[in-house]
Amino acid sequence: MISSILLAAGKSVRMRGENKLIRKINGIPLLKHSIDNILSSSIDELIIVLGYQKEVIENFIHKDDRIKIVFNSQFETGMASSIKIGIKNLSTKTEAFFISLGDMPEVNKEIYNGLIKQLKNNKIIVPTYKNKQGNPVLFSKSIKEEIMNIDGDVGAKKILEKNSKVVFNFEVNNQAILKNYNTPDSFNN
């Protein structure tokens, strides 16, 4: 079973008071693009971690049997707390899981499926574009306990550094893995 933990708990501080996850791109909220791309891939479970403005954001999430919504009451402590909540809510059948970012709506099903195909002998698969590491990162369940030890406003970057010998960099021909929507200007590009 392949799962995805979608991080959607942040405060959108660089958006000057607007929540980036509900801002529309081509008439569709940013978060919905991210959710639809994940669900159109071959993942089996999607855990969406909410925090800031959870009631507002929850209204933009459609019902699907593969979606599980969880709340991170500690979202202000940073990304690590959201990752941990997501991991705690993974199915016991999960063999590998993505850590996906809610503000990367252009990461498509081909990227997700391409990473999944690399799983067989790899513990950590990182998409790269022109040798730059991006997101989402796919982790074998064997890395779960180590990720549970991260703290603060860091993603799994420390885990990648500590486990560099088991990281497989998978080159994709799509710069979407590097592009997030964090500022009002990023919505205009």
Model description:
The chain is of the alpha/beta class and about 190 residues long. About 25% of the residues lie in helices and about 25% in strands. The chain is built from six helices and ten strands; from the N terminus they run E-E-E-H-E-H-E-H-E-H-E-E-E-H-H-E. Strands 1, 4, 5, 6, 7, 8, 9 and 10 form an eight-stranded mixed β-sheet that branches. Strands 2-3 form a two-stranded antiparallel ribbon. Helix 2 (about 55-60) links the parallel strand 4 and strand 5 (about 65-70). The longest helix has 11 residues, at about 30-40. The model has no long low-confidence stretch (mean pLDDT about 90).
Blueprint (SSEs and pairs):
Elements: E1 2-8, E2 24-25, E3 28-29, H1 30-40, E4 45-50, H2 54-58, E5 67-71, H3 79-88, E6 96-101, H4 109-117, E7 124-129, E8 132-133, E9 137-140, H5 144-147, H6 157-162, E10 167-171
Parallel strand pairs: 1-4, 1-6, 4-5, 7-10
Antiparallel strand pairs: 2-3, 6-9, 7-8, 7-9
Give the oligomeric state.
single chain
User: Unreliable runs, pLDDT <50, ≥5 residues?
Assistant: none
Radius of gyration: 15 Å
Strand % is 15-25%
Distance between the termini: 36 Å
Overall pLDDT confidence: 90
Give me the secondary-structure category. Answer: alpha/beta
The helix content, as a percent range, equals 10-25%
N-to-C SSE string, H for helix and E for strand: EEEHEHEHEHEEEHHE
Shape: globular
Overview in brief:
Helices cover 24% and strands 24% of the residues.
What descriptors fit this protein?
189 residues, alpha/beta, 8-stranded mixed β-sheet, two-stranded antiparallel ribbon, 10 strands, globular
